[in-house]
Design goal:
mainly alpha, single chain, two-stranded parallel ribbon
Length: 299
């Protein structure tokens, strides 16, 4: 018995694609009652996955980003300040420009990502569907593969991101994402499509190298989307060795620091780490200045 869900949680991309084809495309677009996935051509599969990835990302972007923006950027405290220490100094049109770019980029990046998921459907990756029968198997499913996913993608994204700051790549590809130094949640997908796709490739390449359960893979990609929004909202929890929003804010203001995605290890190793808690708006000096008692200091 099939699970009636569009977002695919519990089905993975393969199950979601079949669900969309059976209950939406066949029934409402073609008026068919018979479900024959083996007869679907590559173009149909591609278009379904492209549409699904686009809609899913839009739902994530247009539900969470406005909520975070309202809570952290719009609401003011007794001193008239917002929690994100953001003051629109880069122009009142920043948010609308970020949304316009994000809409375009999400559509294009989803199309560029869909071929990876076609390979998943074709069984050409190391994704598996059966639940483990041993304690070691459960450990790998719940802890081992997610940790390996984080370490692998963090390593790859660090070096891809650092390469995108090379003078030959920065202006034509990555500069667009750095248009505004003071980011908002809407900055999270405001990339040149090639930029976002390159930094997203490690998440999909991982399953060609390492085994991963299909639900874990789907959840990991959803968490990546959440994390992308989180590191652009300028608010952070101070967790040791985690590359949070504070670190990424300093990346946008300082450009050549904190290239990491989840951890700070590669930045420390590569000499690109800068402690955000010594810089505005996260240092004690700047937090005091937020209430008008001191001047703030930037890095």
């Amino acid at each position: 018995m099939e699970v009636p869900t569009v977002i695919g949680l519990g089905l993975g991309f393969d199950g979601t694609s079949n669900w969309i084809n059976k209950y939406l495309v066949d029934r409402y677009l073609f008026g068919l009652d018979e479900f024959r996935p083996e007869a679907y051509g590559i173009m149909r599969k591609f278009l379904v996955l492209w549409t699904f990835l686009t809609i899913f990302t839009f739902l994530l972007y247009f539900s969470l980003c406005p909520l975070v923006y309202y809570l952290l950027y719009t609401r003011r405290d007794a001193h008239g300040k917002n929690f994100a220490s953001w003051d629109r100094k880069e122009g009142k049109d920043q948010v609308i420009n970020e949304i316009k770019l994000s809409v375009f980029s999400i559509i294009v990046m989803a199309g560029m990502t869909a071929p990876f998921e076609l390979l998943v459907e074709a069984g050409l990756t190391k994704i598996y569907w059966d639940l483990p029968t041993t304690a070691l198997g459960w450990f790998y499913l719940t802890a081992g593969s997610p940790l390996m996913f984080l370490l692998f993608s963090d390593t790859c994204v660090y070096w891809i991101h650092r390469a995108l700051h090379h003078r030959l790549l920065y202006t034509p590809i990555h500069k667009l994402h750095h248009k505004y130094k003071e980011t908002t949640p809407f900055s999270s997908y405001a990339f040149h499509p090639l930029d976002g796709w390159l930094q997203g490739c490690p998440y999909h390449i991982f399953v060609f190298i390492f085994p991963m359960h299909h639900i874990s893979y789907f959840c990991a990609l959803a968490i990546v989307g959440l994390w992308t929004i989180n590191i652009h909202d300028r608010t952070t929890c101070r967790i040791p060795f985690i590359n949070g929003a504070a670190h990424h804010t300093i990346h946008h203001t300082g450009f050549t620091y904190n290239y990491g995605q989840y951890f700070v290890f590669w930045d420390i190793f590569g000499g690109t780490f800068k402690d955000p808690y010594n810089c505005a708006p996260y240092s004690q000096e700047s937090r005091a200045g937020k209430n008008g008692s001191r001047k703030t200091k930037s890095c």
